[in-house]
Amino acid sequence: MNASGAHTGTGSWLIQRATAGVLALVLPGLLVYFLIALPVDFAGWRVLFAPLWLRVSMLLAGLALALHAWIGMRDIFMDYVRPVGLRLALYLAVIGTLAATLVWLAAVLWGVA
Questions:
Q1: How far is 99 from 49, CA to CA, in rounded Å?
Q2: Radius of gyration over every alpha carbon of the chain, rounded to an integer in angstroms
Q3: Looking only at Cα atoms, what is the longest distance across the chain?
Q4: What is residue 1's predicted lDDT score, i.e. its pLDDT?
Q5: In angstroms, rounded to a whole number, what is the distance separating the alpha carbons of residues 12 and 69?
Q6: Which tens digit of pLDDT belongs to each residue from 25-49?
Q7: CA atoms within 13 A on the CB side of 5
Q8: How would you class 64 by CB atoms within 10 Å of its CB: exposed for 0-12, middle for 13-18, buried for 19 or more?
Q9: pLDDT tens digit string along 43-85?
Q10: Which of 40, 89, 102, 113 is deepest in the core (most CB within 10 A)?
């Protein structure tokens, strides 16, 4: 018997499926919106990203993608990277990259309007 419990992976599995569901719903809608608008200059891109619903959708998709990527990368590192120090360094590198990317996305999205 494992001292950490029998269902430690259930939460990760549910988050992975939930974020996949969010991405499956949000990304096709955003793609259609972008293809219909198809801006050709900077002013067109500014108008495209002006609606609040679009910026919130983009940030939600970015957050879902970052969480989905983190769980996948964490599981890969747990399964295939045996040295604990290297695994910790890889965890920190992925977390830092994903967090910086989300901050950058928010800054870009809210800097447009």
A1: 22
A2: 18
A3: 62
A4: 44
A5: 12
A6: 999 999 999 999 888 898 998 889 8
A7: 5
A8: buried
A9: 998 889 899 999 999 999 999 999 999 999 999 999 999 999 9
A10: 102
| Residue type at position 43 | A
- The whole-number pLDDT of residue 40 equals 86
CA distance 48 to 55: 10
What pLDDT is stored for residue 6 in this prediction? 56
Residues 34 and 97: beta-carbon distance below 8 Å: no
Kindly list the structural domains of the chain, giving each domain's residue range(s) and its CATH number in brackets, ordered by start. Answer: 10-112 (1.20.1300.10)
Cα–Cα distances in angstroms (integers) from residue 78 to residues 4, 11, 48, 86, in the given order: 16, 16, 41, 11
In the 3-class helix/strand/coil scheme, how is 26-82 assigned residue by residue?
HHHHHHHHHHHHCCCCHHHHHHHCCCHHHHHHHHHHHHHHHHHHHHHHHHHHHHHCC
**Residue whose pair of structure tokens reads 């910026």 in the numeric block:** 55
Q: Which residue has the tokens 């970052």?
A: 66
